[in-house]
Amino acid sequence: MRHNVGLRKLGRTSSHRMALLRNLTTSLFRHERLRTTLPKAKEMRPFAERLITIARRDDLHARRQVLRHITDKEVVKKLFGTLAPRFASRPGGYTRTLKLGPRNGDGADMAIVELVGSEPVFKKQKDEKQTRRERKAAARAKAEAEAAAAEDAAGGGAPEQDDAEPDEPKGEPKPGRKKKDD
Predict the structure, then answer these.
(1) Count: domains in the chain
(2) Considering the entire predicted model, what is its pTM?
(3) Residue 136 belongs to domain spanning
(4) What tens digit of pLDDT does each residue of 36-82 get?
(5) Are 51 and 69 in contact (CB under 8 A)?
(6) Do 32 and 106 have their domain in common?
């Protein structure tokens, strides 16, 4: 029985496992989303959430505690500047794990780990098509308005005459001109 066995060894030594968790967590905080194997995702979740909870305190000691595990100062700056305030009123559950299915090649179960609140926004296709149509109509209207404004700016072009004779057909030459021979 596995009573009180608290972690997955992931086939690594303890120092290698800790380096793996630190690297995964750094990537998660940098990109706010990553794709990894399911056991790694499950093992990384409490590690990352603990660091976010520490970062919510936003004091020097908390920053030093986080810097023990995340050595990239830009990522730590992002964690304290944008991520921790985002989760300030949330009591926990900062990450989400989505199962993807087996990986081609070795069949390992894959998962996406993302921070809550950083999921991509998907639009329905009908709404997207409708907005494309609306954008095209707006672009046409704008082009017509610009053409009309350019015509007005150029002096209105040739004045329109209602009595003007209709144009002669192009096949017949005008009177007084000779038709060119081929």
Answers:
(1) 2
(2) 0.64
(3) 122-151
(4) 999 999 999 999 999 999 999 999 999 999 999 999 999 999 999 99
(5) yes
(6) yes
